[in-house]
Design brief:
heterodimer, A: about 400 residues, D-Maltodextrin-Binding Protein, domain 2, five-stranded mixed beta sheet, B: about 325 residues, alpha/beta, Rossmann fold, Alpha-Beta Plaits, six-stranded mixed beta sheet, four-stranded antiparallel beta sheet, about 25% strand, elongated
Chain lengths: ~400, ~325
Amino acid sequence: MNSLGVGSVRSRGSLQATWLIARREIAVRARTRVFIITTVILMIAVALAVALPAILSGKSKPEHIGIVGGDTTTMSGIVAEAGRLSGTQTIAVPEPSLATAEAALRNGDLSAVLVANTKIVVKQVPLAGVTGATATLAQLAGLSKLIQTVPGAAAAVAHGVTLPVTGLETPAKSLSSRLTGLFTVIVVWILISVYGSQIALGIGEEKSSRVVEVLLSSVRPVQLLVGKVLGIGLLALAQAAAMVVVFVIAGFAAGSDLVHGATLGVVIAGGVFIVLGYAFYCTAFAAAGSLVSRQSDVNSTIMPVQLPLIIAYALSYTVIYANGANTFYHVLGFLPPTAPIAMPVLYAAGDVPVWQVVVAALLCAAGTVWMARIAVRIYANSILKTGPRISFRQAIRESRAA
Amino acid sequence: MTSQELELDGLRRRYGSVTALDGLTFRVPAGQVFGFLGPNGAGKTTTMRAVFGVAALDAGEIRWRGRPVDEAARRTFGYMPEERGLYPTMDLFDQVEYFARLHGMDGPAAAKAAWHWIDRLGLSGRGRTRIDALSHGNQQRAQLAVALVHNPELLVLDEPFSGLDPGGIDDMSAILAERAAAGVTVLFSSHQLDLVEDICEAVAIIHHGRLVVSGTVADLRRGDRPRLAVRVAGDRAAAWSAGLGSSAGTVQSVRADGTAEISITSTPDSQAVLDLARTAGSVEHFAYEDLSLSEVFRQATGASVGQAEAEHAAARGAAVTTGARR
């Protein structure tokens, strides 16, 4: 009945089996109500987190624009028109001099100052450039200047009709960039801890139900482990991608600064460290899961695995909201267990140059290989042992002896 | 046919101070149901796990058709471990089909084979039921379906009869006989020697990780000394047998109903025994009798299966105590 089917596929080897195992993980997990509900909740949470601040600020806060020099009526007209075009409520505030206007700018009473026919001054020019009412104002005021000085119009057009926008302070990494960093860190943290414990629980299930003995009669332990972390990893990646898509769509739709301010670099660094972080931790979680005989013991064995992540995650808030990271956090950024969280934070906060991010990523990749080799040995050695929980020390010692 | 066989050669395995396998050697021919028997703790499970590479060996080799067993060969084996295990939340069909595919079958063939065995094992209509929602008996059948679905060339079943009711035992033995008749090498273990003596054609009996005897059940039960069972009416103590000379036969035991079990050295002796019995009274029962497999075990080892298991349990308890103290 099936001798042909068996014979023809038997030679295809180990990749086939690994993929079958990965596919089962995806099929079994993606179908569960828990997975569908958490995915929907996460996406709604991301959409709200991005869109709400933008919607609220857009409605409640009119922008005060200072005007210096020129004809007050004309200048107020330009400001009002800029507000209308950009969909923001703008209020023109005449200022006696540039000095008083700049003082008002610094203490936050004004969001921009229009210096007649000369320039627009803001407190700090965002890295991604000016947006919203200020950008429209710069264009309108430039146009107004062009009209007033028709003989020089050609020259003005050659230089562009937009007035220059200058900042009072040198630009630093904006809050929105830091918030993108925070968003990345939350995603890394959720994905690794949620999917990591799913790996450990899944392996605990295979061990406690003893199905693992049937499995290992036809596949090798390393195939079983790789198939499992690959399947769960693809699911995690799909969920992360969905969250990023929602982040971008919701951000643009609500006109949030988060999207405009988010530099591509932070997003790329975050993506790289999501993959590296999962790769580093997935085998460690698998090894932890293989130590228990009952599924209920899984939570206590994965605690030591999660500890470095918890530390880096907790400290990341101080870096995001304070100015700059201390030396300790810089060190965490280069250690493979903490780098997946610490490095994106440091980069988003503008505390490290790109080459240091690359070095940390390479170190983390090397650490991943090292971790996988130890974890696979622990797993292969422990997965068929029944009885009381095996300690990490015992598992490492025995895997060395084996 | 005889070239298709499993050879276990000099298997050794120690767990700390406990010797599980001590140079175990025997062969399993194809096309018959082969029983792998011995008391609990004799090393049966370790041996079967070693066939699948799930337990490591300190020494020895397991060969399939003359070649050491490797991964490709194992994919043509079917296994039902002593500790049954399936994914509790997967449904029956998905589970059986998954294992068919892990053994190398392609999608359509795997699905077809899965439905075939679900029906064949009396699980029709349960294909979409979760494993943990099946009854205990049906979970056993599901486990057997997983072992059979890829049409294995060697079937290894660890204690397949344990926990089955009489109907289940009949079903299981019918399936094993059917597979053997199809040319499959069937090896199953049991610690209940007498329960399975009618099920298998040949056996290997082990004790302390060593082979005690192996051969066809018929040869082993006949033994090297034929045995007579003789009962004389009204003689509950079999007093008549006191007149037997040591040359004619030896009384092994007397049953409650007065039947004497007498071992004789040659067939003509039986007539001398019969003559003696007839002088004592009317002979109600006179027959050659085979040994049971547990008697074969007792003759060969000097201990009953029950004694051997008690001894093993005591040794295990001692090992656990030592472990705890350390």
